[in-house]
Amino acid sequence: MMANLNGKAVLDDLIASRCEGHSMPQEFYTDAAVYAADVERIFNRQWVFVGHSCQVEEAGEFFTVTIENDSLIVIRALHNVCRHRGTLISRKDCGKARRLVCPYHQWTYERDGKLASCLGMHEINHDGLGLLAAHVEDLEGMLFVCLAETPPDFAATRAMMAPVLAPQRMGEAKVAKIVDYDVTSNWKLVWENNRECYHCNVNHPQYIKANFDHYNSDDTTAVIKERIDAATERHEVQCAKNELEITHKETGMATFPDPDRGLWYAANRTTLVEGYVSESMDGQQVAPLMGDYQDADVGTMRCRTMPNMWNHSSCDHVVSTRLLPLVANRPQVRVMWLVHPEGEEGRDYELEKLMPFWQLTSEQDWELCEFAQIGISSSAYRPGPYSTHKEYNVDAFVRWYLKALVQ
Ligand code: FES
Ligand SMILES: [Fe+2]
User: Fold this and answer.
1) CA 67 – ligand 1 centroid, Å
2) Is residue 382 pLDDT above 70, yes or no?
3) Most buried pick, 82, 201, 260, 380, via CB within 10 A?
4) Nearest CA, atom 3, ligand 1
5) Non-local CB neighbours of 129 within 8 Å, separated by 6+ positions
6) How far is the CA of 370 from the centre of ligand 2 (A)?
7) Which residue, by CA, sits nearest to atom 4 of ligand 1?
8) Stretch 56-77: mean pLDDT, rounded?
9) CA distances from 253 to 48, 148, 208, 348 (A)
10) Does residue 264 line the site of ligand 1, with CB under 6 A?
């Protein structure tokens, strides 16, 4: 066990000890000092997905988000920290406020963060005592914040992703359901699990019925290849009518991330298995069509950003997953279902039909991650080899992570 990582050399040694193409040494999944470095060098410096703009659509609506030690009020990504003596202003998950009042001594802030009044302290000059703001970007209804003073570039991310995300119109959607999970597993194991579908055949009976990406280049038979090609070909013609483009046509998962090209973001449209128009239990539509879609047969739009978001969007609903560190080896994972803004529960959709596909798949994954954490924490753990056919994205994730850690 490492005592601490004060000396960068210790971290460098640990990184150097990784055998290429293998899972990482135990300390990366168990050591408190590595966890602290993850937060400081990754979550505190990069663009972190926090939620959807439709959660803060009406004036004064806000939600709070905690990135390790930093709590933010997302109205405009204001730090949730009073400028008097620093207490948390909002202890709620979400709400609606005309002004933000600190519960300790009632200092009061405007919704843009300006200090409006400080109870009984008339001598105080309000200037410079507004709530501090973090950087925030709204990407087609997906909100990202960056805690760093100088955030990484977002323009290239927007240029690549916005055209793929736009037809879904997430900015105009409505939240149908949010479920939070405490997953007892290092956040990197949650990603590693997400980045391969080697485990899907046995562990995700629902997911594999709707999708082709559990087949890889080494196990796609001629018959399966023909099925994928036929579905993609038919679907390309169909999507062209809606001015949509199928951009992932190959067998296996889309390549992501790409540490060599510095790509921490990706978005694509993919066909579903024939007979499926939605990632629902029976493949049928479960809510009104969203966004610009004229018919249900649009496959799925998928996007993902390091270090903490992936999203699958069908014709009728969106599922976003957000991963936040919160506590070492117990990240909070939030799964959010969005639907058409005028969709009414009971009339236009039922949660019992909308949720199970991704609720089951997600919960199956969390269990896999928790057992992985237990095994990796054992004295018998040794880094093992990745499959080049099935785990190329796990390797890409690890390489992205190790690079981010030393930047
Ligand atoms: S700490 Fe907020 S008003 Fe005193
Ligand atoms: Fe999975």
Assistant:
1) 21
2) yes
3) 82
4) 105
5) 83, 115, 118
6) 13
7) 105
8) 89
9) 23, 32, 12, 32
10) no
Per DSSP, 315 falls in state S
Residue of 137, 4, 147 whose CA lies nearest to 69: 147
Q: pLDDT for 359-374, tens place per residue?
A: 999 999 999 999 999 9
Please give the Cα distance from 134 to 187 (Å, whole number). Answer: 23
Ligand 1 site, residue 73, Cβ cutoff 6 A: no
CA distances (Å), origin 1, targets 27, 30, 31: 7, 9, 7
* Pocket lining: 84 vs ligand 1, CB cutoff 6 Å: yes
DSSP 249-283: -SSSPPP--BTTTTB-EEEEEEPPPTT-SSSSTTS
- For the stretch 156-178, pLDDT in tens is 999 999 999 999 999 999 999 99
125 pLDDT exceeds 50? yes
| Distance in angstroms (rounded) separating the CA atoms of residues 391 and 404 | 20
- Compute the mean pLDDT over every residue in the chain, rounded to the nearest whole number: 94
Distances (CA, A) of 83 to 100, 157, 164, 192: 12, 33, 41, 39
**Quick check: 223 pLDDT over 60?**
yes
What atom of ligand 1 comes closest to residue 102's alpha carbon? Answer: 2
Half-sphere CA count of 225, side-chain side, radius 13 A = 7
pLDDT at position 339 is 98
Q: How far apart are CA 300 and CA 89, in angstroms?
A: 39
Which pLDDT tens digit goes with each residue over 7-45?
567 889 999 999 999 999 999 999 999 999 999 999 999
Please return the burial class of 304, using the count of CB atoms within 10 Å of its CB with bins 0-12, 13-18 and 19+.
buried
Is any atom of ligand 1 closer than 6 Å to the C-beta of 85?
Answer: yes
Rounded to whole angstroms, the Cα distance separating 174 from 348 reads 13
Q: Is the CB of 195 under 6 A from ligand 1?
A: no
